[in-house]
Amino acid sequence: MKLWGGRFIKPTNELVDEYTASIQFDQKLAKYDIQGSLAHVEMLAACKIISEQDAAKIAEGLKVVAEKIESKQAELTKDHEDIHMNIEKLLIDEVGSVGGKLHTGRSRNDQVALDMRLYLREAIVGIAQKLVSLQQSLHQQAASNLDTVFPGYTHLQRAQPVLFAHHMMAYVFMFQRDMERLIDSWKRVNQSPLGAGALAGTTYPIDRHYVARKLNFEGICDNSLDAVSDRDFVVEFLSNASLLSTHLSRLCEELVQWSSIEFNFVELDDAFCTGSSMMPQKKNPDVAELVRGKTGRVYGNLMGMLTTLKGLPLAYNKDMQEDKEGMFDTVDTLKGALELFAPMIETMVVKKGVMYQAVANDYSNATDLADYLVDKGLPFREAHAVVGQVVLHCIHQNKYLLNMSIEELKVFSTLIEKDIYTVLSPKAVVNARDVVGGTAKTQVEAQLTKAEIILEENKTWITERMKQIELW
Length: 472
Ligand code: ARG
Fold this sequence. Notes:
Blueprint: H1 14-20, H2 23-26, H3 30-46, H4 52-70, H5 83-95, H6 108-143, E1 149-154, E2 157-163, H7 164-189, E3 191-192, H8 208-214, E4 219-220, H9 224-229, H10 232-258, E5 266-267, H11 286-309, H12 324-346, E6 349-350, H13 352-360, H14 366-375, H15 380-397, H16 406-412, H17 420-423, H18 426-431, H19 441-469
Parallel strand pairs: 3-4
Antiparallel strand pairs: 1-2, 5-6
Helix pairs in contact: 3-4, 3-6, 3-8, 4-5, 6-7, 6-12, 6-19, 7-10, 7-19, 10-11, 10-12, 11-12, 14-15
Bound molecules: arginine.
C-alpha cells in the first residue's frame, strides 16, 4: 500500500511507478532529508504538536535509518517513489506507527525544497573550497613567473609582450568573481522553506523560525507559495556554475594550445596527460580538453532548468522533480574539474626560455617604437604609419626591429636614436606598462599582494560556512 494510497482503489500502473519515481537519483538527498526531519520533529515537540516521547522515538529511528542508508543496508525502492517517502517508510518499519507522526504539518513540497537548499549549501561550500585551491595554484605560478615574459595575443596574433604572471593573475581575478557570485548566492539559498506545507502553510501551531535556527538558516521564505514553487536558487547556482565553467574552459583552451609543439610554452605533468593507443609519440592534454568539453553539459543543465520552470503555474508541479539531476550533475562535474585543475596548474612546467625566444623574435614591440616616436614629438597617427613601414620592411628582409641597424632605422625616421635598442627589449616593453593593472613587474606584484588578501577572505568565508553546515 502506498503512503498516499487511501484515496485509490486500483494500484498504480507499474510503468507509472517506474516513470514518476525519483528515488534512483534523489537518494543523494537522504542525508539532508534526515537533517530536515530531525529539526522538524524537534520543533513539533517543542510546539507541543507531538509528545516529547514520540519525538524522541522518531529522532532515534531517523538516526538508525540514516545509518542504514549510509551503509547501504536499507532498501530504497521505486514502490515508495522518492527519498522522502522511502525514509518515512523505513522509519515506520523501524519505530512502528509513531513514525507516521513525522509528517505532521509538513508536505513533500516544502520538504523537497528544504532538501535542495541544504544540499546546495554544502555543494557551494565544497566548490568554493576547490576554487580557492585553484586560485592558489594560479597565484603560485604567477609568483614564480614574475620575470617570465611571453607573448600577449589579440585575435590570437602576437600583440604585446606581457608577464606570464600577469596572464595567470587574470584568471585569479576571473575566478574571484565566480567566487563572489557563489558567496552572494548563499544568502538566497540559505532561507528555510519548511512550514510552507503543500502550498498554503499549515493549520498546526508550528514555529518556522525554530526549524530555521536548528538548521542554521539565515531566515525563512516569506511566502508559502513562493517557498514551494520557485527553484530560482537552483537556476542561480547553475548560472554561476556556467560562468565558472566558461572561465575554466578558456584556460583549458590555452593549456591545449600552449602544450602543443607549435606553441611549446608549457609542459603539463605526465600525471595529468594521457597517451594515444596508436601513436606512440602522443601526450594529450585530455584533462583540459574534457573540462572544456564538459562545459557543454553545464550550460545544458542551466538551459534545462530554465526551460522546465518557464510557464509553470504556482505552486508545486511534478515538473519540478526535474530540478535534481542537472543540479547534481553540475555539482559533480565542477568538483571533478576543479579537483584536477589545481594540481595540474601547480605541476605545470613553464618553459621560460621558449617564451622569451617567442617575444624576442616577433613584432610585438612595434607599439613601443611608435610610442618612442610620439615621445619625440611625432603625432601618434604618423608614428603608427612610420612603424608600419618599418615592420613591412623587416618582414621583407626577414628581420625583427631589434635586428635593424641604426642607419636602417633612420631611413624611416631621423628621430630614432641608439637608445631604441634598450627601449624595444621585451623586458623594457613590459615594464613600460607601469600603470595600475598593467603588466609592469611592480604592477603585477601589486596584483599578487591584493590577491593574497582576497584569497584569505575567501578561506575565512569557507571556514565560517563549514561550521554553519555542520549539523549533526
Ligand atoms: N519527488 C518529488 C520531487 O522531487 C517530491 C515532491 C513531490 N510532491 C508531490 N506533491 N508529488 O519534486
